[in-house]
């Protein structure tokens, strides 16, 4: 019989494998991750947790800046002064992000474009933010061409900017390609923002029954989510519920 300590570690390994496997299957990534989780018991689970379950892994995850909330003008002035004093990529991006958050999209675009050159030309955060600014300024072709630069990155598939990519395709008349992108984001028990937006896309195409089915599925999944998952997706579940009340089938 194994000592108690070894048994304890064994059960931890098995527990982690089960949690990671369920999480992966729910998100439709089992083809990529399941063999890693199974054949590298502890290491595979830890790699999966770090890559797929840790907070803030998505592109352009918003960070709450208390200074920006309390006194946005003073915060912008501080960031502008920082850039004047030290002209670095990091300071440019921080100021551009602040301009974007403050609704000064033209200034944000100008600064992102100046920043994304040379060694920083492929910076994923900067590219995603620039595309967001383009979208807000209704520069949809620029949104598409910019996001193509990070389309094949690991984080893009489930990011908010993937929704913007699909919307930009729709708004430039390429509805077939737009629907293809929305379908790529249709993982069960996940991607609630993306699926909600797909439902709205279907509504705009007068496919009301299909839209209703999307919203209904989202709400059917809600009771099976963890408390953390329900909390993080509360907004989209609530919006889906409202849409179901609003549309008729």
UniProtKB/TrEMBL annotation:
Family matches, as Gene3D superfamilies: Tetratricopeptide repeat domain (1.25.40.10)
Keyword Magnesium on entry: no
Localization per Swiss-Prot or TrEMBL: Cell membrane
Keyword list, A-Z: Cell membrane, Membrane, Transmembrane, Transmembrane helix
Xref: InterPro entries: CLS_N, TPR-like_helical_dom_sf, UCP030959_TPR_rpt-cont
GO cellular component annotations of the record: plasma membrane
Top-rank taxon, per record: Bacteria
Membrane protein topology class: Multi-pass membrane protein
Annotated transmembrane regions: 33-50
Cardiolipin synthase N-terminal domain sequence ranges: 16-50
Name of this chain's protein: Cardiolipin synthase N-terminal domain-containing protein
Lineage: Bacteria, Pseudomonadati, Bacteroidota, Sphingobacteriia, Sphingobacteriales
């Amino acid at each position: 019989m194994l000592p108690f300590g070894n048994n304890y570690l064994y059960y931890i390994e098995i527990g982690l494998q089960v949690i990671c496997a369920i999480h992966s299957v729910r998100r439709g990534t089992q083809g990529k991750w399941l063999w890693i989780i199974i054949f590298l018991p502890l290491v595979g689970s830890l790699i999966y947790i770090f890559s797929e379950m840790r907070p803030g892994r998505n592109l352009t995850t918003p960070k709450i800046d208390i200074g920006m909330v309390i006194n946005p003008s003073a915060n912008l002035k501080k960031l502008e002064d920082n850039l004047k004093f030290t002209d670095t990529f990091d300071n440019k991006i921080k100021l551009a992000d602040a301009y974007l958050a403050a609704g000064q999209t033209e200034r944000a675009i100008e600064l992102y474009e100046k920043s994304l050159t040379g060694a920083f030309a492929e910076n994923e955060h900067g590219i995603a933010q620039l595309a967001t600014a383009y979208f807000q300024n209704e520069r949809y072709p620029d949104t598409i061409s910019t996001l193509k630069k990070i389309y094949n990155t690991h984080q893009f598939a489930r990011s908010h900017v993937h929704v913007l990519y699909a919307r930009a395709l729709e708004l430039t008349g390429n509805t077939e390609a737009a629907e293809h992108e929305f379908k790529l984001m249709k993982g069960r028990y996940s991607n609630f923002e993306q699926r909600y937006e797909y439902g709205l896309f279907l509504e705009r195409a007068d496919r009301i029954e299909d839209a209703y089915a999307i919203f209904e599925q989202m709400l059917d999944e809600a009771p099976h989510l963890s408390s953390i998952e329900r909390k993080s997706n509360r907004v989209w579940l609530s919006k889906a519920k409202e849409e179901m009340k609003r549309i008729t089938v």
